[in-house]
Amino acid sequence: MTDTDTRFRRTPGWLVVAGNELRLIMRNKTVAVTATLVPLAMIVVMSLGDGDGSPGMAAMHLVMLLGFSVYATTTMALAHRRAAMFLKRLRASPVPSMGIVAGLACGPVLLFFAQSGLLAAGHAVAGDMPPRDPAVLAAAVVTGAVTCAALAFLTASFTNTPEAAQLTTMPGFMVLIGGMLWVLNTPADEVTAVQLAIPGGAVTQLARAGFTTPGEIAAVPGVWSPVLAAVVVSTVCCLLAARLFRWEPRS
After folding, report:
1. Do residues 133 and 213 make contact, with C-beta atoms less than 8 angstroms apart?
2. DSSP state, 68?
3. How does pLDDT run across 145-164, given as a tens digit for each residue?
4. What is the DSSP letter of 190?
5. Are 147 and 234 in contact (CB under 8 A)?
6. What ranges do the domains of the chain cover?
7. Digit-coded pLDDT (tens) for 166-191
8. DSSP 120-188
């Protein structure tokens, strides 16, 4: 029995994979900068340019964090691990496939959760706009993370190298930003199911509601529609990724 097998038996497999992924992310300069410095720098610049916070601006920041920290970072990391044959070796370990997937996505998602906390604190202090409904905002953070992680696995299916991710993630970014802008330019009570079905649309609607509507999540009108839309979109992305994702480089 190898040391790796013994380690997997002592600790839940997905947790071991997640810990290794966090360390690998921070060692890769390109991925580390994409996951941390770039999104935070964008928030600082935008905050300096406009001292007055708004729900729309907060939602925009959240979607940008999702795009950089979860979507782009996970896509690049998966492409790098596959090119290095790490995914092939990992799949031969005692960890089940679902545990591997959860562990690989856990690192970028945890970074995003930390950045989301900083984002909320920044808007509360600099923009004088604390979240008025943390439950709704938490729903935006969680559903957005799941959706973008699923999109990353789907995009990684067509990404052979980390460098290629700069091109393969562009359509996903366009969809996220397009869905966000479409919702932001529509009054909250006029957002349609089609807008919510676009990745980025439901998250934007939830984030905007989290900063504008007080009360419990069940008492906020229209909140469950974007939650359901986000769940459906992430489920579709997960099913497509499960069918198309490759554990080994193309021969």
Report:
1. yes
2. I
3. 999 998 999 999 888 888 88
4. G
5. yes
6. 12-244
7. 899 999 999 999 999 999 998 888 88
8. HHHHHHTSS---S-HHHHHHHHHHHHHHHHHHHHHHHTT--STTTHHHHTHHHHHHHHHHHHHHHTS-G
